[in-house]
Amino acid sequence: MSKQLDVRDVDVVFSGGFGGRIKNKALSEISLSVGGKRPSITAVVGESGSGKSTLIRLLLGFQAPSRGAVFYDGKPVAGMDAAGQRLFRREVQAIFQDPFDVFNPFYKIDHPLITPLNNFGLVRSRDEAYARIEKTIARVGLRPEETLGKYPHQLSGGQRQRVMIARALLLEPQIILADEPVSMVDASLRSTILEILFNMYREESISLIYVTHDLATAYQVAETIVVLYRGQVMEVGAADDVIHRPRHPYTKALIEAVPSPDPDVPWDLDNPEAGEAERRALAAFDGSTRLALFRTDPLRAVAAPYDSPGERVTAGAIQQAVSEARLASVSAR
Ligand SMILES: Nc1ncnc2c1ncn2[C@@H]1O[C@H](COP(=O)(O)OP(=O)(O)OP(=O)(O)O)[C@@H](O)[C@H]1O
């Protein structure tokens, strides 16, 4: 049983202009929940200005709703006592788009890892803190000896993002809100970071709200997709249904906007347009084969072995690649 974060029928209205007479409804009639009986991953997909950041601030308790309420573990976040708030602050963690903004450039990256452990009384000594930090750093795929003791600018963007994930994990959260966690990371690391997030869910029962503009990665990790447009939920459902049987014209338009290159043109690994779907397809092979990549639908790609660039791939090879890629995608979810 994991704890539940619940948004019930929330509006967020911002006032602007002279005397606050101009009203901007950033969120309208929003209801969603994560966690509860079993942990879950929900993706919230929306374009710029759809209200994603406002939603994250609302979920973190930084933005008060104009109507409706947010509940954590059945209690309204707005009315929590000090002890409740403290628990909420520890158990609901966020990971942001650009971790560089979060780090203080004058402190080594050990600082934002040790401080919350001390503040929440989770460790009794510096040695205990370092033992936990090293273990967690390793879990997000970094080497403690190459990471700790460094300043933020001495790490790559992907390393900084993984340190932020480690920081969230150290606090033993119930729920993680990930706000565009891979949009600043280069393509080759995107899958790795999404996989780390997915493993937190699978291995530690942490629920995840993954906020993104990218339908393909949403489909990759989430079981439920919420499509947000101008502050309203346009469509919500199981990821497969939303992607393969979209009901709302806006969702259809989003899916159509995912680039789908000519299936007759083989891709190679250096193709800069290769995205999540291609990388997943590649995972179906052991990497020893030369591969050409094809999109089969907007969000799925297959990899087929080929001998030399430009050579046409046989239908049989594609068929085999399709079945193997499907198998890979089934087991990855
Ligand atoms: N503090 C604020 N005061 C007034 N209006 C705001 C405020 N914050 C957000 N808005 C407005 O609310 C709407 C939603 O903004 P929000 O930042 O949540 O969108 P977003 O989906 O996160 O966009 P992006 O992906 O570009 O960050 C926009 O119209 C924005 O101008």
TrEMBL record:
A Pfam family annotated for this chain is ABC_tran
Gene Ontology CC terms, in alphabetical order: plasma membrane
Keyword ATP-binding tagged: yes
CDD domains linked: ABC_NikE_OppD_transporters
Please give the SUPFAM superfamilies that the UniProt record associates with this protein: P-loop containing nucleoside triphosphate hydrolases
Molecular functions per Gene Ontology: ATP binding; ATP hydrolysis activity
From the Swiss-Prot or TrEMBL record, state where the protein is found: Cell inner membrane
**Domain ABC transporter residue range list:** 7-255
Q: Tell me which UniProt keywords the record has, alphabetically.
A: ATP-binding, Nucleotide-binding, Transport
Q: In terms of one coarse class, where is the protein primarily found?
A: membrane
Annotated membrane topology is: Peripheral membrane protein
Q: Which GO BP terms sit in this record?
A: peptide transport
Membership in a protein family: Belongs to the ABC transporter superfamily.
Q: What is this protein called?
A: Peptide/nickel transport system ATP-binding protein
Which species is this record about? Devosia enhydra
